[in-house]
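Renewal narrative, Specific Aim 1. Our central claim is that a sequence can be written position by position from structural information alone. The example that follows is taken directly from our test logs and has not been curated for this report. It begins with the structure tokens describing the chain, in the order in which they were read.
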């Protein structure tokens, strides 16, 4: 049996994805059922416990292929978008799957009970969350799009699914400046280095894996660094073992990092020296 990446292949000794039959050993194989994330954000954890490590987050509207609904309120499943496997709170999921029509196109937006910005918001949705629009409304302040099952969002904060919310991935990443660092995070509430890269790419319509090692192996094309760093440009990705940042221009690096405990920017030369003091050196540069 070949060894598969457990982050991207749903298998345990007792249970596995039916598509992996013959590839892994498990007591039983099951077919997944499609569920949809209905909370603004749903944690995807390494184990079915609220204090287990946060590996990533699923955004509202995402489809999750669920293999098991546990008795303790956890679902074991795989995200349809990037293939990540983990445990999600079952209360954050719905068996009713509704096709999304629009995607949040700003760092965060408010869901109002109705088309009135003076009403207390029902929820805050992050960039990349998807919704189903059911109608339009307006008042003297704004135009709104009504969403299922309830609520209204100002129209300029949404873009149709399939249309990139912005073509400049660096500008998207810059909108997260000052966001607290959160391992596994993918929103303005908290974000990590590879989550920043993933959401910036996806907002520009570019498919992107979740973790930095996956991105270093499959995002764009590798530049030759055998003789030193080549001239860099806006949008290049710089990788260390376990870390990634995005070049703002030829000199400045934008990254979610534990030194600042936030998304910040600094000269690449400064970041490289500081990171090298802990051992890692730049392992790859990739360009779209």
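The sequence written for that structure reads:
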């Amino acid at each position: 049996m070949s060894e598969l990446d457990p982050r991207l292949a749903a298998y345990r000794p007792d249970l596995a994805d039916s598509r992996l039959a013959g590839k892994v050993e498990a007591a039983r194989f099951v077919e997944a059922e499609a569920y949809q994330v209905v909370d603004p954000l749903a944690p995807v954890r390494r184990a079915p416990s609220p204090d287990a490590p946060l590996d990533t987050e699923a955004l509202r509207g995402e489809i999750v292929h669920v293999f098991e609904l546990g008795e303790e309120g956890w679902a074991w499943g795989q995200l349809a978008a990037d293939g990540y496997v983990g445990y999600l709170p079952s209360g954050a999921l719905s068996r009713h799957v509704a096709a999304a029509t629009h995607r949040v196109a700003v760092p965060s937006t408010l869901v109002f009970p109705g088309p009135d910005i003076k009403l207390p918001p029902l929820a805050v949705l992050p960039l990349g969350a998807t919704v189903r629009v059911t109608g339009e409304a307006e008042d003297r302040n704004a135009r709104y799009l009504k969403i299922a099952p309830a609520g209204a969002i100002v129209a300029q904060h949404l873009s149709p699914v399939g249309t990139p919310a912005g073509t400049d991935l660096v500008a998207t990443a810059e909108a997260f400046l000052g966001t607290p660092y959160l391992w596994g995070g993918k929103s303005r509430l908290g974000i990590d280095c590879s989550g920043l890269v993933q959401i910036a790419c996806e907002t520009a319509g570019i498919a992107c894996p979740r973790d930095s090692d996956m991105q270093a192996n499959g995002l764009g094309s590798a530049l030759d660094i055998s003789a030193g760093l080549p001239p860099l440009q806006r949008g290049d990705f710089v990788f260390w073992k376990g870390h990634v940042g995005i070049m703002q221009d030829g000199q400045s690096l934008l990254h979610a990092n534990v030194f600042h405990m936030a998304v910040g920017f600094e000269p690449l030369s400064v970041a490289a020296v500081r990171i090298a003091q802990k051992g890692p050196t730049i392992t790859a540069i990739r360009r779209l």
